[in-house]
Amino acid sequence: MQSTTIDVEKLSAARKHEDMEFRPKFVQHVMVKRNLWHVISISIQKIKQIWLIYMMCFMMEHYRFNRSAGAKLNETYLPPYK
After folding, report:
1. Is 20 helix (H, G, I), strand (E, B) or coil?
2. For 35, 56, 62, 75, which has the most beta carbons within 10 A of its beta carbon?
3. Spans in the chain with pLDDT lower than 50
């Protein structure tokens, strides 16, 4: 099983890109995050198999505990930020 590695040279090149000097700070961060996402997604595509360590934690039971447990939590989504 291969581990995912991030190409640090590509990230540093993206950060030092001359285009980014003229952009506002928040746009620079978005661009770096996007570049990081592309590098990670490319390295993840190279992995042949992904193994789940604890398979039973991800098993869904159709008409048992998993289906009704969410309703018993008495928690709701928070309202959106303004």
Report:
1. helix
2. 35
3. 1-3, 18, 24, 26-27
The total domain count for the chain is 1
Note whether residue 80 is domain-resident. no
Is 24 a member of any domain?
yes
Return the exposure string of 11-27: e unless at least 16 CB atoms fall within 10 Å of the residue's CB, then b.
Answer: eeebeeeeeeeeeeeee
Q: Is residue 34 part of a domain?
A: yes
Instruction: Establish if 76 belongs to a structural domain.
Output: no
**Which pLDDT tens digit goes with each residue over 7-26?**
556 555 555 554 555 554 54
- Gap between the Cα atoms of 29 and 34, Å rounded: 9
Full residue range of the structural domain in which residue 66 is found:
8-70
Structure tokens that stand for 15 in this block: 């950060």
Q: Where are the alpha helices (DSSP H) in the chain?
A: 8-15, 25-45, 65-69
Indicate the pTM of the whole model.
0.20
